[in-house]
Amino acid sequence: MQNYLTPNFSFAPMIPERALGSRVWDTEGREYIDLSGGIAVNALGHCHPDLVAALAEQSQKLWHISNIYTTQPAQELAKKLVENTFADKVFFCNSGAEANEAALKLARKYGRDHFGEHKTEIISCLNSFHGRTLFTVSVGGQPKYSKDYAPLPSDITHVPFNDIAALEAAVSDKTCAVIIEPIQGESGILPATQEYLQAARRLCDEHGALLILDEVQTGMGHTGKLFAYEHYGVTPDILSSAKALGCGFPIGAIMTTDKIAPTFGPGTHGSTFGGNPMACAVGSRAFDIINAPETLAHVEQQGQKLQTALRELGVKTGVFKEVRGMGLLLGCVLADKYAGKASEITAAALKHGLMVLVAGANVVRFAPSLLLNDEDMAEGLKRFEAALNEWLA
Ligand SMILES: *Cc1c(COP(=O)(O)O)cnc(C)c1O
């Protein structure tokens, strides 16, 4: 088939056509179990009837009106986010990169407004991923994503992840923000330690810097709590969300406190589509389902089952040396012998009717629907085992 798109993506050799729950069918009618969740986006599976209804209903009322006006769906979703998190105010945008871009701009401006022109340094972790805009690839700790686009925004320092001493040495009165993923997602589903996030919080407080938690991947129920920071008992100043926030309808957000929000005064930042009524109507309905105690308990329970099964499979096949992550955001770390081959395994899985992801070259990632049932999990695992065995043969 002719590809009319720029070649920055390496598309899989099939074309998905329709999907329901955790199952996807391609244009040839082949069925797949989806344990990748559209890269941690389809948190309620595909075409959840309540989300289809919310979208259909809103599509008859109002699609877009611009940020000259606010709308009921935007206020409704923001209210739910505020009432269920540390935050007092929400800014809506359309993606994770845009959310982090807003978070970083807010932190720079807050530092400048309250401390002066010297307070501009942003500290970020090596191997982190924060999006693909120029600012966010520069803050992200993977030079492969930024080096071709120099000159890059400046005054950004990278430190090794989970290294408290390195963070202590780096944070100073020049620092305006420290940005951390509670679980490094794209680079391998690697959780921050409790001590690390606590140290980051303390250092930010000591130096008047803001702690930004990038929960674009970890947020909206994937770890078994609404946001991963709740597991750590460490409260950020700014939190970024996207991916599962719209469960497949594009939306991003930052959440912050009443202390910081006024920095974004009229005209300081904006977005044409941010707060779009369609996106917010879907997000608002999705929020209620994800935030229900029974959904979060289901994530915890299914996550345990999946983790145990993957660990057993790792032992049985010798392909994995570790399974890590939280809830239904899990990574299987390849044994040294198979290092660098994660994409071979996801390709083999696809041939066996299973969608899974890589997270870096050494980790196979699972980010399925939070509503994943036993039957789909068992079938997915069966296909995964068959794929691994064929790949090993
Ligand atoms: C996916 C991701 C982003 C980027 O989100 P986009 O919607 O692709 O811009 C940023 N941060 C983290 C942690 C992510 O996983």
UniProtKB/TrEMBL annotation:
Membrane-crossing residue ranges in chain numbering = none
* Record PTM N6-(pyridoxal phosphate)lysine, positions in chain: K243
Keyword Glycoprotein in annotation: no
GO molecular function: any one? pyridoxal phosphate binding
EC top class named in words: transferase
Family matches, as InterPro entries: Ac/SucOrn_transaminase_bac, AcOrn/SuccOrn_fam, Aminotrans_3, Aminotrans_3_PPA_site, Class-III_PLP-dep_AT, PyrdxlP-dep_Trfase, PyrdxlP-dep_Trfase_major, PyrdxlP-dep_Trfase_small
**Gene Ontology annotations of biological process type:** L-arginine biosynthetic process
Localisation per UniProt entry: Cytoplasm
Coarse class of the protein's main subcellular location: cytoplasm
Instruction: Identify the domain of life.
Output: Bacteria
Q: Coiled-coil stretches, from where to where?
A: none
Keyword Nucleotidyltransferase listed? The answer is no
- Report what the protein is called: Acetylornithine aminotransferase
Which species is listed as the source?
Neisseria subflava
The top of its lineage is: Bacteria, Pseudomonadati, Pseudomonadota, Betaproteobacteria, Neisseriales
Q: Which gene encodes it?
A: aruC
